[in-house]
């Protein structure tokens, strides 16, 4: 188990990725995202997750520059959006993102959604970026098992990461088992189900027992299930609190109770049925 905020999981290509990071989905471009990222870096976060479609890569880049943390200590993720998928257009989208972020290499580049008929060509572009040393690791987001199998049937390089909606109401057990068996690191987006889970009675009860917040219980559950997690917050005290999960452990009974909350309930789109 990770012992602190800087602890890493080793991806199947040997690259080390922090277990914990800051997501910036729905964080506004400008001072909001700059302040959020700078607060996270100030308090020991090393991993920042953005995406082209979040429209805040420039603010993330500004924060990285102003924070003054050595580049090699950081782990920066961005994603290619659906409308940019395809081989040439992905390579162009990557250059656009890098220009906004102000980086000369990226730590992790993801295909944001499995756009039918496009994601294999997109993956070829990611493989090229990886081979050219522009990206240290490549992966996917929102891929079900059948998408992964389909991609891997023709891929030269297996995805290193699959970032999906993951929380106690959507435990994705089969997908997690599949990813573990294939050596693909699973990563959780929306780990708190956009706040919905913070009042779930079982979670509140376990939180009281450990003298922790409901959010801390959920984020600890992620880590104990071997899932990288990137909660979003724009409040400094919340950014600090979210990361304060390395000084306690959930018992197997706690884990069982949390696992039993699953109801296959999504807050985001189903990767088999999205229209964007």
From TrEMBL:
Annotated Pfam families: Aldo_ket_red (PF00248)
Highest rank taxon of the organism: Bacteria
Record-annotated site: Lowers pKa of active site Tyr: 79
Domain NADP-dependent oxidoreductase, chain residue ranges per copy: 30-262
Key words of the record: NADP, Oxidoreductase
Active site, per annotation: 54
GO molecular function, one term: oxidoreductase activity, acting on the CH-OH group of donors, NAD or NADP as acceptor
Binding site for substrate: 112
PANTHER family: 2,5-DIKETO-D-GLUCONIC ACID REDUCTASE, NADP-DEPENDENT OXIDOREDUCTASE DOMAIN-CONTAINING PROTEIN
Similarity comment: Belongs to the aldo/keto reductase family.
Name of protein: Glyoxal reductase
Organismal lineage: Bacteria, Bacillati, Bacillota, Bacilli, Bacillales
């Amino acid at each position: 188990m990770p012992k602190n905020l800087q602890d890493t999981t080793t991806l199947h290509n040997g690259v080390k990725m922090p277990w914990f990071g800051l997501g910036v989905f729905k964080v506004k471009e400008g001072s909001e995202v700059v302040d959020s990222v700078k607060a996270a870096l100030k308090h020991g976060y090393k991993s920042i997750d953005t995406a082209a479609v979040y429209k805040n890569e420039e603010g993330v880049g500004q924060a990285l520059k102003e924070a003054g943390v050595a580049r090699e200590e950081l782990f920066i993720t961005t994603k290619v959006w659906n409308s940019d998928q395809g081989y040439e257009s992905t390579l162009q989208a990557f250059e656009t993102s890098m220009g906004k972020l102000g980086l000369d290499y990226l730590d992790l580049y993801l295909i944001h959604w499995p756009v039918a008929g496009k994601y294999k060509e997109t993956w070829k572009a990611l493989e090229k970026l990886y081979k050219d040393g522009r990206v240290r690791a490549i992966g996917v987001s929102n891929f079900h098992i059948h998408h992964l199998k389909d991609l891997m049937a023709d891929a030269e390089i297996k995805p290193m990461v699959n970032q999906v909606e993951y929380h106690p109401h959507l435990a994705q057990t089969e997908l997690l088992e599949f990813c573990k068996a294939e050596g693909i690191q699973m990563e959780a987006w929306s780990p708190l189900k956009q706040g919905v889970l913070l009042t779930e009675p079982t979670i509140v009860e376990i939180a009281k027992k450990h003298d922790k917040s409901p959010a801390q219980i959920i984020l600890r559950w992620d880590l104990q299930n071997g899932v990288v997690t990137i909660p979003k917050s724009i409040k400094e005290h919340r950014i600090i609190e979210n990361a304060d999960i390395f000084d306690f452990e959930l018992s197997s009974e706690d884990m069982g109770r949390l696992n039993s909350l699953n109801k296959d309930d999504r807050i985001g789109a189903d990767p088999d049925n999205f229209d964007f």
